[in-house]
Fold this sequence. Notes:
With 328 residues, the chain is an alpha/beta fold. The protein contains 11 helices and 14 strands.
Amino acid sequence: MKSAKLINGKVELTAVEKPVLDSTGAIIKVLGCGLCGSDIVKIRHANQNNEEKIVLGHEVVGIIEEINDEKSKFKVGDIVALGHHYPCLKDDCEFCKNASYSMCKTFKASNIIPGGFSEYIKVDSNHLKYTVYKMDDNLKEDEKAFLEPLSCCIRAVERAGFNYKDKKNSKHSALVIGLGSIGLLMMKALRAFEVETFGFDISAQRMNLANRHGFRFDENKKYDTVFLTAGNSKAIESALKYVIDGGKIIVFSSVEDDFKGFSNNEIYYRELSIIASYSPSPSNIKLSSELLNSKKVDVSNLSTYYKLDDIQKAIEDSSKILKAYIKI
Ligand SMILES: [Zn+2]
Ligand SMILES: [Zn+2]
């Protein structure tokens, strides 16, 4: 079968063995997979020593083709979307007991095989239990593929202290800085949580797009929570400018290695909380499935479709389009 692999810094389609279901879990025939900003970061930072281990593609939509799991709620033919990592959730795990699920060793070691840009993948029974969800027939394939990215945003919103359906959320105002696909998704997640949500980007084109989705920016306002979905000094300057004293900045983006970071005294004297949010837990994925399937978060018309054969072009186009969906 075909699978996209990183070879000498370029994504190439290689012929690999179709995965075999030799233990509990499932084989999923991939319908398509979203291209994530983190895939592009991985490609950019890869070198010849690590590129073999890099797994590309994790925003998978597919059909269960084969299943071996007695307790599973799934059957052959189900159309599902999934996340790629799951934590151990054990009481004696120093990370899980602290709700730092994405730091758990099991989380970091778990993955789909061989990666989402492949004709078939293998998932194990813990994936089936914690990260795989049946998606509503009314959603288009690319909309189903937002299961994992939306769950990442939900984690960030929860890390900011918001609980879904908490009436007090509407008393808060949030600003999202960096309105690419993940920034737009973050705003939609915040809106689903009923937080008053604004968005800012230095690109007029992205601001227009946010406007079309019903989001504004008020430069005379200060915000109690600021989400950084762009990683550069300008974005951080803006975060410090627009956050209220005592407010929170949620870091949801990497920066270049030579970036100097936040000013200690600005954080200290203004009593700011800088909180990072990285990757979703099983409960975030569950809520993501509910918000997508009920269309409480509408992700229609955000993606551009590419054929698997054109994946390199999708990567090259990533700065021009909002989101690529690779159709397998
Ligand atoms: Zn992702
Ligand atoms: Zn753990």
